[in-house]
Amino acid sequence: MKTIQLNSNNLSYWKKRAEPTVMALGFFDGIHHGHKKVIHVAAELAKEKKLSFSVMSFFPHPKTVLSNDSVGFDYLMPLSKKASILKSLGVDTFYVVAFNKDFLSLRPKEFVSHYLVNMGVVHAVAGFDFTYGYRGTGSVDQLKRDSNNQIEVTKVKKIDFYGKKISSTWIRELLFEGNMTQVANILGRFYETEVYWNGNCFQLAPYYMLPGAGYYKVVIKTKGKQRETEVFIPKRRDGIYLVENNQLSLFTQESLDMIWLHRISIEKEEHSESVLMG
User: Fold this and answer.
1) What predicted TM-score, i.e. pTM, was given to this entire model?
2) Residue by residue, what is the 3-state secondary structure of 225-262?
């Protein structure tokens, strides 16, 4: 899979190299069941039409641009992790569009013309609530019209879980509540983060969200080995601490993968200092 960072400066370069493609559109943070439905529909259409299969996402999140970086945003995964999952789903090309103030000011038809039609998109697939263009005034229902009928469009209906719409926002809420079991149901896999050991506790790598306070059962992966253990996140949420009776041999700044299985309890939070390493 090829990953292409796309912006107004290199758009003409990539336009000349674009081939006819079926493209899935969306931010795809976390790549949950709803996202995977959009991606799978696009993949099947690409196979049927014998065309390449691409995904277009955007970075950073629009909220950070609209707030002039004054509002923090809890990403569920970095672009590298997103790319890895997309590759496993059969994507040929992953476009990452620079979401900045210039991009934000594009009218809907300008976005469709410059970033879709000119990039070889002949069929676009998006969720029912996908929007684009200035102030999100473009919708999936008008995308074909905005392309002057040059792009066919498939709208994927809402994917829900027991009646509630699956969304990245809901996953963030569940993570903050520590409901890792429900998160796994919605993602279709356990939540996984990259962490590093600072000599006292684990710190998250950039662009991952820290779950809410409490004790958790996790799996730590390093050097091809896996070990199940318990960790604690205090109310101040300043790190991920190993529970004392589950010490591991770790090197400072060593990078590891942490798989979050489930929260054990929150009752012992007031005694956290007595059970943390360090």
Assistant:
1) 0.89
2) EEEEEEEEECCCCCCEEEEHHHCCCCCCCCEEEEEEEE
